[in-house]
Amino acid sequence: MRRLLLALPFALLPGFALAAEHDHDHAHHDSLSAHEHGAAELDAALDGSTLEIELRSPAMNLVGFEHAPSSDADKRKIAEARKQLDQPNSLFGLPAAAGCALAETELESPLFEGEAHDQHDEHDDDHESQHSEIHAHYRFDCAAPQALQAFDLQGLFKAFPGTQKIQAQLIGPKGQRGVQLNADQPRAAF
Questions:
Q1: I need a surface site. Which of 54, 126, 151, 182 has the fewest CB within 10 A?
Q2: DSSP labels for 34-76?
Q3: pLDDT tens across 42-85, in order?
Q4: CB-side exposure of 108: number of CA atoms within 13 Å?
Q5: Is 110 in contact with 132 (CB distance < 8 Å)?
Q6: CA angle (180, 156, 70) in 5-degree steps
Q7: Sheet with 39-47, side-by-side order of all strands
Q8: Which pLDDT score, from 0 to 100, does residue 74 have?
Q9: Which strand (E) or helix (H) includes residue 143?
């Protein structure tokens, strides 16, 4: 299923060329041509009773900076963002009637890797000039997937006010669609 999400920008929504360019080898998190502060991308696929959601965002949107953490305050911001990302139910507003239970969470970012390091070396100086991304992948098992008609990103916009817009690509029983969401229009239907 994860491969379906990764292929979604290529195969299903060819009109979203920037999203297709953004899908990349995860070893190069910070070399994206479509990197835009305030903007993020979200792919959601509902296949049977499985819902997969993948969020890709510049770190600036989620923690307020993109450099390796250089202070205790930076480390606290990264830890807080990670804590919020580890609680996707509060971010995605899935309807309770769908009975979706979180089955898997995967968070990736050079900032999370640096979270555990207390030293600041020359490599970190090089990293400061680069763009850091945060990728979050979630898999939910839904007891009543037919009740999952939409989800609401209001919680995500509140948790991460640096995120101004999200380009969402959705695939579900009714087909696929793309929609741009923001704090004033946070709801997307499958």
A1: 126
A2: T--TTEEEEEEEEETTEEEEEEEEEHHHHHS--SPP-SHHHHH
A3: 999 999 999 999 999 999 999 999 888 989 999 999 999 999 99
A4: 13
A5: yes
A6: 110
A7: 100-108, 133-142, 50-58, 39-47, 165-172, 175-182
A8: 94
A9: none
- Identify residue 99 by its one-letter amino acid code: G
Strands 165-172 and 39-47: parallel
**Model confidence, pTM:** 0.76
Q: And the tokens for 181? A: 């969401």
Quote the tokens at residue 159: 């948790």
Residue 65 in contact with residue 79, Cβ under 8 Å?
A: no
Q: Can you give the length of the chain in residues?
A: 190
What tokens were used for 109?
Answer: 């970012």
How far is Cα 100 from Cα 17, in angstroms, rounded to an integer? 31
